[in-house]
Every structure is written in C-alpha cells, then in structure tokens.
Amino acid sequence: MKYYITTPIFYPNSSPHIGTAYTTVAADALARYHRLLGDEVYFLTGTDENAQKIVRTAEAHNIDPKVYVDGVVKRFKELWEALDISNDDFIRTTEERHQKVVQQIFTKLYEQGDIYKSEYSGWYCTPCETFWMENKLLEGKCPNADCGREVELLKEESYFFRLSKYQDTLLKFINEHPEFIQPSSRRNEMLRFIEGGLEDLCVSRTTFQWGIKVPFDPHHVVYVWLDALINYISALGYPDGEKYKRYWPADVHIMGKDIVRFHAVIWPIILLALDIPLPKVIYGHGWYLTKEGGKISKSRGNVQDSFELIQRYGSDAIRYFLLREMQVGSDGTYSEDNVVERLNSDLANDFGNFVSRSLAMVVKYRGGIVPRPGQDGAQEQELKELSHEIKNAVEKSLDAFDPARALEEIWRFVARCNKYVDETAPWSLAKHEEQRERLDTVLYTFVECIRVMAVLTAPFMPGLPSRICKSLGVDEGFIRWEEADQWGILEPGMQVQKGEPLFPRIDISQYMTVGETKIVNQSQNIDQNINQTQAQKETIEAEPTPALEFEPIKAEISMDEFAKLDLRVAKILSAEKVAKTDKLMKLEVEVAGVVRTVVSGIAKHYAPEDLVNQYVVLVANLKPAKLRGIMSQGMILAASQGDVLEVLMVNKDLPGGARVK
Ligand code: ME8
C-alpha cells in the first residue's frame, strides 16, 4: 500500500515554533507508523516563500527576500532534523520544479476558461494573505478570529478563478465522502461556508513583483494560495512524474484549523478543474495556546526557541508532549512547566522507571542474561491479552489521526507493566530458591514488556527504540509492528544491560514561580530568561532574601586528615523505604564492582524511583553501623539547609567506584 502524507508548507517569515512543530511531528508519527506497517510512504513538507508578507519582512530587515528566506529555511530544516522528522522531500516554492508546474496549471485553467481577467476592488489582509469583501470585515479589520489586524484597500487589474462554477460539484463530493474533511466539526463548518455561496477568487497581484509570474502576462504574479496549494503535486512531478503516478492522490493533508478553508475549498476546486482525483482526507487539528489562552504564533511574539527546548529536554520528550496534549477537535495548552511535568510523570516515572527497574533486576538476579521462562501465570496471560487490545486501539486511533489517544492507550500498558513489578515482587522471589522458575518467568516477561513498549512507541518517539535496543543488545530490526502483541519473541540467553536512564527526571524545585511564568534557577545553568520580562526580573530582584541561620564552620583539619576520607561515586541500583520510619531509605549501591547496602535519611525528600540509576557520592570507608536492624556500609552525601535537602549527584559519565577528591 502507498501512503502519501503532507504538512502545510510554512511561511519562512520567521523561525519555526512549537505550533508549527506540532503539525510536523504529528505527520511524522503517522508516516513512521505507516512505514512500520510496511506501507510505501511519501512524506512531504516544505516552505511557502512567494507571499507578500515575506517581501515585507525582508524589507524590514533590509535584506533581499531570497537571501532572507534562504536563512529561515535553513532553520526549518535544522529544526526538523533536531526533531527527528523523517520527511522524504522538502519543497520550496521558489524552486523551479514548483514554479513551472504552477505556470503550466495557471495557463491551462486560463485556456479552458476557468481563469479570467477582471478588476479586483476590495480588501486584503497581508498577515493572512487573504482577500476580503467589505461586508465580511469586522469593524473594518480582518475578520479572521485569530487575526483582527488592519486590512488594505486594493484596486487592481487581476485574474479570477471561477470557484462559483464548481460549488455544487464540491458540495456533492463532500456530502458523498464524509471522511474527506476531518474531524467532523470542521466538515460542518466547511459545509456551512460553501452553502453560503462561493465568490470567484482573485488569483493574481500586480502591486509587487515577488512571486511566480503569470506566463502570458508577466506584469502579474500568481496569488500565493493558488501557488502554495499546488506544491502537493509539483513535488511529485505532476503531470508525468513517476512519483505523481505512484502517490497521488494524497492519503492525508494534515494542517491547523486556520487553513482548512483553503484546503477544503480552493484546493479541491483546482483539482476538479484539472480533472484529477481529490485527496482522501483533509485533517485540521487545533492550535497550541499559551497558558493565558492566546494562540502561539510568530506575529504574537509569544514563541519560545524550539532548539533550546529540544536541547534541554530531548526530541523524544518534546514530541511526546506535543502529541499527548492535543486532543482531537480541541486546542492544546503549551507551557514549559507542563513539558517538565509530563516528562517527569509519564516518561521518567512510568516508562523510564519500568525499563530501568526491570533491567536492573535482570542484571542483579541473573547477571544480565535473560532467563528461559517457566509456565505463564494469570498475570502474564493478562499482559499478553492487554498488549493485543492496546495494539488494536493504537491502530484505530492512528487511523483516526488521533496520536493523543494512541499514547493514552500505550500508557495503559505501561501502567500495567509497573503494577506487574509490584505484584510479582521479584526481590521476594529471589530470596527463595524454590521460586527460581517463577522469577525466571517474571524477568523474561519484563524484557518482553520492554520490547512491546519500544515497538508501540516507535512512531512517536523515534529516538527511543535505538536506546532500548542498545540496552537489550539487539539492533533496530528488532522493532516489528506486527510483533507488538506477540510474545516469546525474545531468545532466552541474550545479554542485557541496565543502560543509561532513558528520561532523567528534571527537578521541578529548580523552578521559582513569578506570576504565570516559571524561571529556571540560575544555579542550574539553564537559560534563566524564559519568557522573563524586565518587570518580572525587577520583581525578583526587589524581593528581600530572608536571613538564614547557618551552622558554624567546624575547626580546621589538615590535608592528611581529609585524605583519610575515601569518597567514591556510587550507582544506586535499588531504593526502598525502610518500613515503619518516615526518614530512612535503604539503598543498594554499586561501588568499585561490589554491591553495598546503605541506609540514608533522605526518604522524606525523595521517592525511591527518583534515586534508582542515579550516581551519588559515598563515604566508602565509614565504619559500618546498624540502623533499624540494617547494616549500613557507608553514607551518601547530601546538602541541606532548613527543610531543603539535596543528595549530591554526579552527572558526568563516571562509573561507580570513581574517586571523589
Ligand atoms: O498558513 N498550534 O503557513 P503558516 C498548532 N503557508 N499549529 C500551528 C500553530 C499553533 N499555535 N501555529 C501554526 C500557512 N501552526 C501557509 C500554508 S499550505 C499549502 C500553505 C501550524 O506558516 C498549523 O499547521 O502560517 C497551521 O495551519 C500552520 O502552522 C500555518 O503555517
């Protein structure tokens, strides 16, 4: 099966942002899913460069428009690469391959009488690149809900496209193909709009020269929307290209709700006039809004640098957040603290923690060798049935262009896997030799669960499978969609490693709140200026720092005395609260190749899952002491002041056992 999927081509009048990224990430997840199904996928994105607003922006920067867009397009390509976007092509409307198709189509429509010359007298909104008749304006401004900006009066000779001629054919098509415009709320909007009557569309401009010239009347440039929509076939080499023959019609054009009207009216009418098939689906998703409720957009100036976000949290986490938060038919809310919350709860706590806990147990109890399982019990049976149910639900959600729902389903499986660890309590099984076979079954099932999770999340977080496969010691060929609900795929005897934590937790206490904006504490060496206004900065500086009472500094010691301390990096393998205390945590740590038990008074400040796989500093030559009946072999270092306590962690790649001096 072939699968042709597109994003809109974005205006390169400024760098891409998180809203633009959403559309592209959603399209990418669908493209990756269809590749996993074995479909022959063609995934197209690109930039829409012949708009009047591009000329205006370039002029404002005093730069030639082409030089300007070349710079911004480079940013788009870099962002897509940083977000692991797997597009097969990137079309720019300033490319010759596109321009010649636009000219060919314009001429054909003119010759067959669908385009005619007249005069346009009306209004134009340059930010929206849209013509408006006087009676549609709202208080003399652009009536677009998202815009409301000044419009300009135009009176110029223009070519017109006979939209009105195709109105009934289009209505009939939409009525006969309920799947054509999705979700259905957008379809209803479009039906009402078309039933209101279509006016012929002005499709050329003469007051500026940036754009594609009308070949038989070069005084005119082609109206940017007619030009832009044609990218979906010019990129395939319309009319004779092999790709055009193979991939057209598109299986889905994905876009934001703001531009569904252009795709559901102008685009199908161009295709009807050319007598070529219409795309199968036009899907209009909602917008990402700020916490305060405004649309994230370049012109509102409320966008955050996407590159910084990716650098801070990683492409997989940003992709997960974007896909997870946008529910079908509604808008999503974006804020950086929501990203951190999702990362900590869904990715670090639920997903990452299951992977690290379960692999750590395979290493601890079976030296990293995946054991041969014994007889399945009811819990294993339930997991298998659940994987089947979830795989079907994910497929159904993705067929309905609903990645948020698909992820929700997958996390149902992740939650079940975590519950399975608690129910089976391998640490107790390990204490009884007669439970050896049961422990083997549980450990084997853990690794199978990790495999199932890696397959199911592969379309959404493409960086994950390779990291998981590395821990499992297999290559990525191992990720096979059809095996997401099959069990017994793993060969017992394979060697696994604990690996690095998949999603290290972000310490949210690093954030201090200023109004609605969270600012990262400077000491964390992360950009302090996220959305931080001058006024907010001043508020922080003006706040008096409360006086603190410090412990007095102790008497001097010599270097020799200090050298008696043997401080080592230690890796926490497992952590559990000591029963009947609220302060003590029992840790198993690995230091210089041996595993030690350490009891530490940090339980009020950390959950066990926050500690597993972290590297801490251990006083390794402290005399062992018994605490609550447990022999503690050393002490881990923590900084504290008042009620705040932070365990010292080592973030660089240093093994357990490295000296601290
Ligand atoms: O409209 N939330 O380009 P454009 C979600 N060139 N999606 C958002 C968003 C937000 N806050 N902001 C932007 C154009 N988008 C034309 C398209 S296609 C033939 C020509 C996404 O740069 C969303 O997909 O203004 C929206 O439709 C698109 O960017 C608009 O991009």
Q: What does this protein look like?
A:
This protein is α/β, with parallel strands linked by helices and 661 residues long. Among the domains are: 141 residues, 3-Layer(aba) Sandwich (Rossmann fold); 149 residues, Isoleucyl-tRNA Synthetase, Domain 1 (Orthogonal Bundle); 133 residues, OB fold (Dihydrolipoamide Acetyltransferase, E2P) (Beta Barrel), CATH 2.40.50. The chain has 21 helices and 26 strands. The strands form 8 sheets. It has a 6-stranded parallel beta sheet, with helices on both faces. Strands 17, 18, 19, 20, 23 and 26 form a 6-stranded antiparallel beta sheet that branches. It has a 4-stranded antiparallel beta sheet with strand order 5-4-6-8. Helix 13 packs antiparallel against helix 17, helix 15 packs antiparallel against helix 17 and helix 17 runs antiparallel to helix 18. Ligand ME8 binds next to strand 1, helix 1, helix 7 and strand 11.
